[in-house]
Specification:
Layout: E1 28-29, E2 38-39, E3 47-49, E4 56-60, E5 68-69, E6 92-93, H1 98-115, H2 127-138, H3 141-163
Parallel strand pairs: 1-6
Antiparallel strand pairs: 2-3, 3-4, 4-5
Length: 189
């Protein structure tokens, strides 16, 4: 068996998008996306977050005339069903330059860092709260007992008033409310 003189090599493929399909949906404008959802650090390997499924997907065709979102699925690999995302093959409208994107990203980071609290400050005491805390700290067991003894007659009067039934408020033709204690009895077997 004769061996060929040289190993065959693969033919050079054109550097363009694999499929010529383009989504019928309108093109994505980069200026309409949040700057944190675009990654243009390496412009030849640019990625963005798909507006439909929220996953990071590359942009293909950076060296060709039409740049579009890579065809992708909505679910996680090897976990969910492979359902084709509606945002696949959607054209990209480059209405944002890389310096403009960097400036927008810097502004967004600055704004987000200004919103987050850096230090938690304790809530200041009001004069009433401060007085109540001081009074509580100064009280002793004997003082608390004396306070309860002073309140007990008023509590007893309130309980007595609560137990009293006003005259004339019972319905004339209604069944009477049972006053004896009901007990559960077992049947003899």
């Amino acid at each position: 068996m004769a061996l060929p003189a040289a190993m065959p090599t693969a033919k050079e493929r054109p550097r363009r998008t694999r499929t010529k399909r383009v989504s019928t949906r309108p093109a994505l404008k980069l200026s309409k996306l949040p700057p944190s959802h675009i990654d243009l650090l390496d412009p030849l390997q640019a990625t963005l977050v798909c507006k439909d499924c929220g996953t990071w997907v590359p942009i293909t065709g950076m060296n060709s005339r039409v740049q579009k979102v890579v065809p992708h699925h909505t679910g996680k690999a090897h976990i969910a069903d492979a359902i084709h995302c509606r945002g696949s093959n959607r054209r990209i409208d480059w209405d944002l330059t890389i310096p403009q994107w960097r400036q927008a990203l810097t502004d967004a980071i600055t704004e987000a860092s200004s919103r987050t609290a850096t230090t938690v400050l304790p809530k200041p005491f009001s004069p009433q709260t401060n007085w109540a805390l001081q009074a509580r700290a100064e009280r002793t067991a004997a003082g608390r007992k004396a306070d309860w003894q002073a309140v007990l007659p008023r509590v007893a009067d309130a309980d007595k008033a609560r137990r009293a039934v006003p005259a004339g408020d019972t319905p004339a033709e209604a069944r009477s409310v049972p006053t004896d204690h009901l007990t559960v009895q077992r049947l003899a077997s």
